[in-house]
Amino acid sequence: HKPQKGDLDTFSTMAAVPQSPALYAVPDGCFTPHVKFENAVQSTTAVIVEKIAKLFFEGRLVQDIDKVPLELRPINYESPTRCCVWKDRAMLRLRIIATLGFAVEKDDEIMTLSQYAELALKRKRDEIVAPVLTVIESACHKCTRQQYLVTDACQGCFASPCRSNCPKRAITKRDGRSVIDASKCISCGKCQKVCPYNAIINIPIPCVAACPVGAITPLPDGRKVFDFDKCTFCGACMRACPFGAVMPKTHLIDVVRSVADPQSVTVALLAPAVLGHSTTDFQTLSAALIAAGFDHVLDVSLGADITAMKEAQELPLMLAEREKKGETPFMTTSCCPAYVRCIKKHAPEIEDAITSTRSPMHYTAELARQKWPGCTTVFIGPCVAKRYEAICDEHTDFALTFVEMVLPFSISGMPGRSLTPHSSQSSPPRT
Q1: What is the pLDDT of residues 258-306, one digit of tens each?
Q2: Pseudo-torsion of CA 396, 298, 277, 258, nearest 10°?
Q3: Model's pTM, two decimal places?
Q4: 106 phi, psi to nearest 5 deg
Q5: Does residue 94 contact residue 87 with C-beta atoms inside 8 Å?
Q6: Residues whose CB is less than 8 angstroms from the CB of residue 396 and which lie 6 or more positions away in sequence, other chains included
Q7: SS3 of 253, please?
């Protein structure tokens, strides 16, 4: 049947998240009931995701995608984010390229969005490669170097613990207040810690400060160099950048193509962590995905049970083997792709302690392939790192985040399948 808007009302519940201060709503005119975002970067990305999906399901993606930046930033737009609507449109164009699944760094500014869309619609699974993140250099604010700054809260106290504790003698007193010489400061933070008035602040470079493995190098001119060979794809820089200069290359088009193809069996692998983003249960989410066009939904808890069982069998063997070698007897997880990549790249001395057991996502996808041979498997979870794992995994085709899933598949009038929620082969929810 063709679901009506009422058929997808479950997405209204599914998209609801707990209220928190300073939330940005999606702009008027977009069908995203009850979805709230923490900042304007997230809400803008959500609007782009929804616009692209809507054009696809209406059969107008290639024809009308070049109009999207103009629709979102009309000539009379009163509050452009950048200097003018034309710069805003340029940034929106690059965000659309990333949402279509392409690296922005390779854009030549000549290729149109419709040409990118055509390529995305023809893209094969083995053409999707790492890195899963892309950097919009022109969106980067070119933040100044990290520095500590004395604010007007300084009282010019006699004790001056900031000066006494500075290892580089970078702090002097001028006009009754402390002043930090940026050329001498090594950003150790000791002055900030000892100030009795909390008058010293740290001005960080958000992406650099957020990266746990030092994969981002700031240049003197403010630009940043991302070393994707060091990167673990944890997404910390993406979440930290207030200008949205780091974006994921999404699998959105690849997934909606599979869902819309009547010859394709598309199986959603739903991570239990997704429930933390909603106020509903697994059964409701499963029914909503079926109504939206997925053929089957599997709870990734099934794969987690297999992982736990196999790790329990492996643990005593690994501990005994490490003790035999005179090494510390322990075993680490394989469930988080960012962690596994971090160990391999930055702590190779304990790489042999990583369990050989695969992740819950892998085993759930394997179960799907056994039950529905040739099916397309789509992992749905909260983490961008899982997209990297999906690229490397032999049983998982694509990965979507919660927002990438809920917005496109809550569009009113989206073409559906003849299946009903009762035909889902979902596993029971876990308590």
Answers
A1: 999 999 999 999 998 887 776 677 888 888 888 888 999 999 999 999 9
A2: 50
A3: 0.83
A4: -95, 0
A5: no
A6: 269, 361, 362, 365, 377, 379, 389, 390
A7: helix
